[in-house]
Amino acid sequence: MAKTRPFDAAEYLDNSEAIAAYLSEAFETRDAGFITEAIGTVARARGMSALAKDTGLSRENLYKALSSEGHPEFSTVMKVLSSLGVELHAAPKAAKVA
Q1: Which of 26, 61, 74, 81 makes an SS bond possible with 38, Cβ 3.0 to 4.6 Å?
Q2: Alpha-carbon separation of residue 90 from 26, 27, 31, 74, 93 (angstroms)
Q3: Where are the domains of the chain?
Q4: What contacts 24+ positions apart, CB below 8 Å, involve 76-79?
């Protein structure tokens, strides 16, 4: 019997380009829970302890806020994204084709 282990995207988020692509895909879903969890996955990839130190937030609060059930305040999201070296940009929404 082959042994398997659960897939963890954090293992593959080892550079800025991979992180930006991963988060961009998450943002495109427009699913708040999925986006929050994706930010949490990136945070784990970069190291939650370092992120906590950099943002001034506790590790426990970060784990809770950045889970799929978390509801982080926007200021928390912005602190985390800034610490991760990620910027948000606004773009016009694509027009729907009739």
Answers
A1: 26
A2: 15, 12, 17, 16, 9
A3: 10-83
A4: 77/36, 77/39, 79/55
